[in-house]
Amino acid sequence: MTAHHQTFHVAVVGGGLVGKSAALALAQAGLRVALVAQPAAPRPADLPFDARIYALSASSQALLERLRIWQALDHDRLAPVYDMRVFGDALAELHFSAFQSAVPQLAWIAESSLIEQALDAALRFQPQVSWLDTRAQGLDVKPDAACLALANGQVLEADLVVGADGAHSWVRAQIGAHVTRRDYRQTGVVANFKAEKPHGETAYQWFVEGEIVALLPLPDSHVSLVWSAQADHARELLALAPAQLEAAVEQVTHGRLGELECVGPAHGFPLARQSVDRLIAPRVALVGDAAHLIHPLAGQGMNLGLRDVAALADVMAKKEPFRDLGDLVLLRRYERARREDIGALTLATDGLQRMFSVPGTLARSVRNAGMAFVGAQPFVKRWLVSAALG
């Protein structure tokens, strides 16, 4: 062993909420963890809210509580969702209620930077974690260990490598996993606004001519826009002056929250569905966007990734003493535990996106009739809420 050679139980490649949660969860289980990732960029001090907003389900809240991250968050910056109203592209409407579903809330709306900074602080005080601010550039899987070469010259040996490095995962490429991708030819346009009318802790969603517009509640009568727009239209929206964007959002949401005031610049990100033929390889497991990518219309992408983390940590905690962490038998348990959840949510979000993209009067009538039918079925709505909560 040289001065540049270190040994760990697990090497997590990639930061973000999923990678850092994975590193913390595995470290709290008593494992020595190397986190190969960059620290979170601070939220600009002149903006009231981060541009990246997530709707966290009950399963995500439970994981963050287990990691003692939820307790460390500034809860004045969190917004509960007690109701959700979904409007079709005709007259259909769906209403989901936390009260009617007998749950405390449907989701929590939280800024990415709020959670990531709490994770950063916890990781820096976690003695089982070595945080390496560099990138991986070589992976050599041997029978007894995986060797990870880093750009700073270090070499790590680990029983298990966790790929949490996003939709364009380098780790995934190293194991030769086959990726199936569908480009939606849409861009998610996100921006934050101050609303004239109170949102009442309600999330709104409109299906409009093949596009999807959502307003998510934030503290102090603010809302977060997620507009899944056709690529050309998205470019137009992103080029608008703040007053023009305010008018466009007010129009498409029928003035539901009155006048809107931009409180930060709009940003865009491409939308696609992505799945892989396997989540594992010898001594390697994929989590988060490295393992799956879904349409944001249900706001479940981050929740899906955090459920990956919870499942992986659970499998590792329950392993037999004679198995090491990279044992394929162990990793197959993780893959089996995640396949149904990932497959069902991918199918549901892709199917909804396709359904509302079909033009024509007949298609519009059929999908809105379907929405009306679901809206009249309390048991179906409670099942949908239960599935979304994870």
UniProtKB/TrEMBL annotation:
<dbReference type="GO" id="GO:0004497">
    <property type="term" value="F:monooxygenase activity"/>
</dbReference>
<dbReference type="InterPro" id="IPR010971">
    <property type="entry name" value="UbiH/COQ6"/>
</dbReference>
<dbReference type="InterPro" id="IPR051205">
    <property type="entry name" value="UbiH/COQ6_monooxygenase"/>
</dbReference>
<dbReference type="Pfam" id="PF01494">
    <property type="entry name" value="FAD_binding_3"/>
</dbReference>
<dbReference type="InterPro" id="IPR036188">
    <property type="entry name" value="FAD/NAD-bd_sf"/>
</dbReference>
<dbReference type="GO" id="GO:0071949">
    <property type="term" value="F:FAD binding"/>
</dbReference>
<keyword id="KW-0560">Oxidoreductase</keyword>
<keyword id="KW-0274">FAD</keyword>
<comment type="similarity">
    <text>Belongs to the UbiH/COQ6 family.</text>
</comment>
<protein>
    <submittedName>
        <fullName>Ubiquinone biosynthesis protein</fullName>
    </submittedName>
</protein>
<keyword id="KW-0503">Monooxygenase</keyword>
<keyword id="KW-0285">Flavoprotein</keyword>
<comment type="pathway">
    <text>Cofactor biosynthesis; ubiquinone biosynthesis.</text>
</comment>
<feature type="domain" description="FAD-binding">
    <location>
        <begin position="9"/>
        <end position="340"/>
    </location>
</feature>
<dbReference type="InterPro" id="IPR018168">
    <property type="entry name" value="Ubi_Hdrlase_CS"/>
</dbReference>
<dbReference type="GO" id="GO:0016705">
    <property type="term" value="F:oxidoreductase activity, acting on paired donors, with incorporation or reduction of molecular oxygen"/>
</dbReference>
<keyword id="KW-0830">Ubiquinone</keyword>
<dbReference type="InterPro" id="IPR002938">
    <property type="entry name" value="FAD-bd"/>
</dbReference>
<dbReference type="GO" id="GO:0006744">
    <property type="term" value="P:ubiquinone biosynthetic process"/>
</dbReference>
